[in-house]
Specification:
By secondary structure, the chain is an alpha+beta fold. The protein has a domain at 3-89 and 142-196: NADH Oxidase. The protein contains nine helices and four strands, in the order ααβααβαααβαβα. The chain has helices at residues 3-9, 24-35, 54-61, 72-77, 92-104, 111-131, 135-156, 169-175, 210-213, and strands spanning 46-51, 80-87, 160-164, 183-192. A four-stranded antiparallel beta sheet has the order 1-2-4-3, sandwiched between helices. Helix 2 (24-35) packs antiparallel against helix 7. Bound molecules: flavin mononucleotide (FMN).
Length: 217
């Protein structure tokens, strides 16, 4: 499948066939693609919970109640679900971890290059925290880039997917003790294979026209 085939054929799956599991190797490939997602200044302000067992799915479904109950079967019938979380703040220890990893990965030719990377990151973090005044929003934007990449990767691998923003944030945060971990829940992603009963598989894709969304300067 090429770029446009995938963009046209991937869609938000509304009902899964729970008997169909994503082969482990394929799923691990998807996680690796997720780990490699890009982010501003390589800040990687995320953490992902991988949900595979029935017990884990039931825990997530606790947050799919009330007005979100329509999303519960998607998680419960999925093969795997991923909860995308975002760091509440960018801590010094996170910045140290990143710099350390950059060094291990061999990105610095000398101490000066390492210091320059440190200063650049700190400068941007300071800008988003103090000048723009909403570092959490900036951080969460990065998490959604990872979501977009994973949606496309799933399409490429022939895996059906459902991004799920409709869940009770408070319940999920309590269930997974997110606050103590310095995390906020951003979005769920159910993955698996569609059920024959999925009404959405038969509906045409709907998007605004090119002239409505592009301005060629
Ligand atoms: C961040 C985000 C949150 C979403 N939340 C939900 C949701 O809670 N439940 C659901 O059924 N679909 C959800 N969707 C799916 C969108 O409705 C869907 O992507 C959109 O209608 C475009 O359709 P397509 O994905 O089939 O091309 C979400 C999509 C995104 C990107």
């Amino acid at each position: 499948m090429d770029l446009l085939n995938i963009s046209q054929s991937r869609y938000t799956t509304k009902a899964y066939d729970s008997s169909k599991k994503i082969p482990q190797e394929k799923f691990e490939k998807l996680l690796e693609s997720l780990r490699l997602a890009p982010s501003s200044i390589n800040i990687q302000p995320w953490h992902f919970f991988v949900i595979e067992t029935d017990e884990a799915k039931q825990r997530i479904a606790k947050a799919l109640v009330g007005k979100y109950v329509y999303n519960a079967p998607k998680v419960l019938e999925s093969s795997h679900t991923i909860l995308f979380c975002t760091h509440k703040d960018i801590t010094d220890s996170h910045l140290d971890q990143l710099l350390n990893q950059d060094e291990i990965s061999g990105r610095f030719k000398d101490d000066q290059a390492k210091q320059a990377q440190k200063d650049t990151r700190l400068g941007y973090v300071d800008y988003y925290r103090n000048e723009k005044g909403d570092i959490q929003r900036w951080s969460e934007n990065q998490t959604f880039i990872a979501l977009g990449q994973t949606l496309f990767a799933a399409g490429l691998e022939g895996i059906d997917a459902t991004p799920i923003g409709g869940f009770d944030e408070k319940i999920i945060a309590e269930e997974l003790n997110l606050d103590a971990k310095g995390l906020i829940p951003s979005v769920l992603l159910a993955l698996g294979y569609r059920s024959e009963k999925d009404f959405n598989a038969k509906l045409p894709k709907s998007r605004l026209n090119a002239d409505q969304v592009f301005t060629r300067l």
